[in-house]
Amino acid sequence: MSYWDQEKKNLLKDIQLFLEDNNLLESDIQWVGNLSGDLAISFKDFKTIAEKTFIHGYKIAHDLTIVAKDWWITVEGVAGCMLWVLHKKPEKSNAKLFVNVKTYNGLRLLKDIQNPNNSLLKEE
Question: Is the pTM here over 0.90, yes or no?
Fold first, then answer.
């Protein structure tokens, strides 16, 4: 039976496999806590908790967040299963100024609602 077929999975091993699959390093992790950052511990301290925690489905805190300098991981539940989601710090590249944030006629992306030639840019 493979690790993924087991009914109970070790939280630390689950995180380590996710990091490995995404070419991320444990040594880059700065802290673990919640997304708002008002609860936080070192990854070293978190590992002590995680190695004793076995998970089945979506049975851990929904706001658990693992934070590195340029990326962070959150947990999401889908159909009773737990998924790790990788978020990367956005990078600016040839950024232009924008003046509008209001959506129009189904246009919801900043880039789309800045174009004055877009025929869909009529007040909703």
Answer: no
72 and 27 within one domain: yes
Residues of the chain below pLDDT 70 = 1-8, 56-58, 78-80, 104, 116-124
Which H or E run contains 33?
A: strand 29-34
Q: Are residues 81 and 21 in the same domain?
A: yes
Cα–Cα nearest to 26, from 39, 40, 12: 12
Nearest by Cα to 106 from 93, 117, 91, 121? 121
Contact 30, 79 (CB under 8 A): no
Structural domains of the chain, count = 2
Q: What pLDDT was estimated at residue 122? A: 55
Are 70 and 15 contained in the same domain?
yes
Domain of residue 39, residue span: 3-88
